[in-house]
Amino acid sequence: MSIKTVLQEIVESVDGALGAVVMGYDGIPLDEYIPQGSPIDLQVLSVEYATVLKEVRKAVDVLGSGVMEEISINTDVSRVIIRVLDDDLFVILALLLDGNYGKGRYVLRHQSSRILEILQ
Fold first, then answer.
1. Could you tell me where the DSSP H helices lie in 1-120?
2. Phi, psi values for residue 19, rounded to 5°
3. Number of separate domains in the chain
4. Does the model's pTM come out above 0.90?
5. Sign of the CA dihedral running 7, 9, 15, 18
6. Which among 8, 6, 13, 36 is positioned nearest to 100, based on CA atoms?
């Protein structure tokens, strides 16, 4: 099984999902799945949010708030769920504003271990 296959399963199981990507904190994507006709530029979005995520991770470390697991960024157009996989990688799921946010969080949480197994 490939990372792309897992990302495809994630996107296709969540109503309103626009795409998913596994990326390093360096902004380099490992793999992505974007369904045909998706209106989002996941490459640009994920690179920009990688920068934001690095800063949030630093703040969490400075505050001693524990280990960051997940972050969401909601705008008037879309929702983005970012789940940390390990010290180097995270997975992003982009949703329409009215997409199934709760299921997206659930699926990402449960599929993260599969992604990590593939990477081993």
1. 3-13, 42-63, 101-119
2. 160, 165
3. 1
4. yes
5. positive
6. 13
Beta-carbon contacts of 63 under 8 Å, excluding residues fewer than 6 positions away, are none
Residue range(s) defining the domain that contains residue 88: 3-119
> Given CA atoms 38, 46, 75, 14 in this order, what sign does their dihedral have?
positive
Tokens found for residue 45: 């979005």
Q: Tell me the per-residue pLDDT of 46-92, one tens digit each, with 9 for 90 and over.
A: 888 888 888 888 888 888 888 889 999 999 989 999 999 999 999 99
CATH number, position 55: 3.30.450.30
- The rounded distance, in Å, linking the Cα atoms of 113 and 102 is 18
CB 71 within 8 A of CB 82: yes
Report how far residue 56's alpha carbon sits from residue 82's, in angstroms, rounded to the nearest whole number: 12
Q: What is the rounded end-to-end Cα distance, in angstroms, of the chain?
A: 12
| Residues pairing with 63 in the sheet | none
DSSP E strands in the chain: the ranges are 17-24, 29-33, 70-74, 78-84, 89-96
List all residues 6 or more positions away from 86 whose beta carbon is below 8 Å from its beta carbon. 116
Please state, as a whole number, how many other Cβ atoms lie within 10 Å of the Cβ of residue 29: 15
